[in-house]
């Protein structure tokens, strides 16, 4: 079965570069980002892991844990971390899953379940669909997933932006418009009728269309 937004993120146990983990326990009562890679020692992925290491404090501020996944053994991950430090100036300080048996890649619909064997002998091109980012909420449900081609590096600032939106909209009855950034005006969701909106937003709102009402960010 394909995974969809709001599905429970499949739980799993795995070996990582920082020891054994159980996914749901690892997330705890916060948020989690799981981002996957088709193979260690690949150029785009090397820059991605380094970029995320630099932005780790921003994820921490939002109570978001981050974890990578690559279909190679822990021993390769450890060697790869030194390369990432050489290239990006900082060694990743978050766990990277060793998905040697491809179990998690299949569990998350990134590889077909009928693929036999392990990661041994497989190339990055064989695993090119293992390029998805999953954002999971405290309720262990999938809030967002994005799949990137191998030649396009991920934008982690965009992930932070979407997390800001999802955390805001989980707390308030609002949605965020296109290109929204934290602190900018938001949209009152259609389910909130004007009478309720008057109680929630006594200072009023801007009506662009009957179904499009903007108010300042309620978290400010």
How would you describe this protein?
The chain is of the alpha+beta class. The protein folds into two domains: 13-153, Glutaredoxin (3-Layer(aba) Sandwich), CATH 3.40.30.10; 172-215, Antioxidant, Horf6, Chain A, domain 2. The chain is built from six helices and eleven strands. The protein has helices spanning 23-27, 43-61, 74-88, 103-107, 156-171, 194-200; strands at 13-16, 19-22, 31-37, 64-70, 96-98, 132-136, 142-147, 174-175, 186-188, 206-209, 212-215. The strands form three sheets. It has a five-stranded mixed beta sheet, covered by helices on one side. A four-stranded antiparallel beta sheet has the order 8-9-11-10. Strands 1-2 form a two-stranded antiparallel ribbon. Strand 6 and strand 7 (142-147) form a beta hairpin. Helix 2 (43-61) packs across helix 3. The chain is elongated, with a radius of gyration of 20 Å. The model has no long low-confidence stretch (mean pLDDT 95).
